[in-house]
Amino acid sequence: MNMGLYIVQQGINAVSLGSLYALVAIGLSMVFGILRMTNFAHGDMMMVGAFGTLLINAAGAPFWLAALCGVAVGAAAGVIVERLAYRPVRGAPDVTLLLTSLAVTYILENLGILIFSSSPRNFPIPDIMNSAIQLAGGQITFTAINVVTIALTVAALALLGWFVTRTDVGLGMRAAAEDLGAAQMVGLDVDRLIVVAFAIASAFAGLAGVLWAAQSGIVEPDMGFTPLLKAFVAAIVGGFGSISGALVGGYVLGALEILIVAFLPSSVSPYRDAIVFGLLIVFLLFKPNGLMNRPQEVKL
Amino acid sequence: MVSDAGPLLETRGLTKSFRSLVALSDQSIRVDRGEIVGVIGPNGSGKSTFFNLISGFLQPDSGEIRFAGAPIVAQPADRIVRLGIARTFQGTRLFQALSVADNVRAAAELRQRTGLAAALLGGGRRRRAEAAVEEITEELLDLVGLTARQENRARDLPYGDQRRLEIIRALATRPSLLLLDEPAAGMDASETKVLLGLIDEIRTRYDLAVIIVEHDMDLIMNLCERIQVLAHGSKVFEGTPAEVQAHPAVREVYLGHG
How many domains, chain B? Predict the structure, then answer.
């Protein structure tokens, strides 16, 4: 295989992986933007979305409908967690919110283990999604699920972009992310905006969960943990709290991981995550506010 | 038109402490429709606490706040804005990364809200609401001469323009009472004069009552019909600008601060 085609092949892998990171990172960043809270339970919405899809599919619904419902279940779970766990402690010191979200993670993951056991389950997807697509006379090969992942992510991002920039609720969300108190002072119902933010963030995580499970072929209760850490890196690289930053960060991270695997000696591959986190530390030394964020201004 | 005969805003026995510090003690004020009232006092005299209590940012320990005859204590802040009380902040609290026009739009939406479904689906009702928001936004930007800079980010405006933007953002919620928290802070004499003209104009044009908390004596004396003097959280004196200037205790309390 010549080098150009190899790069195209790896580019597709990178965009596919980056899409998943971006989907998760955007939700993390969105919630942080409004509440200044790191939602560790965010990754668990991936598990909820994937298990939701699995159950609804097993009950007889066609896969695509089940996946749609799974995403909706993920969104609903996010809204319920906000209402039951986060809203009561809003206004408490930041560390309280942080610990609350850690507690929610443990509760959700253990609920998952209780219901589904801790061993991985198969995640059956339609055969068409596993079919190989070949280009350049078979020199570039990828599976349909890669294309589906990229297409759905682009669609979700376009929808989000339209919502945030073209609707009054989106404008309210941008205002609330700038200054929650001032948003209230122009009459914005911040409780409602926070619910909308959690719904969107969790729907995106749910979608990422379904796609993640479809790519790996399995679902398990702690499946959200590693992607959450990666999304965390992506969001920080982009500038925590910035939606476009999380998007860029997600794709940068995806590209970086594929680069490490594809172009460095295979003996290095096992250290992929260590290298990524190491690079994050170096990056933060030089750009502590991320790519897209200005230095935090002190608010009175 | 407003037909209510009673005062627009009335507080009675308003008290707020932070731990052992009494920020405001047994304060009362009455503001009629269309009136401009000043609240002055040294730093720490309770002026900001007073605004924070009225706008629902803080809850009083005791006392009453009535707006247009109805009690508003314990109402959430966004609900109070909906009732018709808008405010600006000491310094500014603009939506810094948003455009100048979006700062105003976000506030103008308050009177045009059509709900999430309409936002997603569009339709005639939503289009009319958007048109109304655009109309208010254009009018207010024009009022303070920010039309040409409406696509700039708020943070890129010069300081004086940021102050004016915050005032029109508050106006976009269509208030009947406007609370201005040190609007002239950091302004030079000529900027303050422009500000004075602006406040006078919006008061007439939008039929507003205004309460101003301010250190700039020129602004207060020229603009206000009535002035309340606070010191250590308590009302020391209330009267016309002439009476306030003539009052020896007031001179001591206020001017003694420097």
Answer: 2
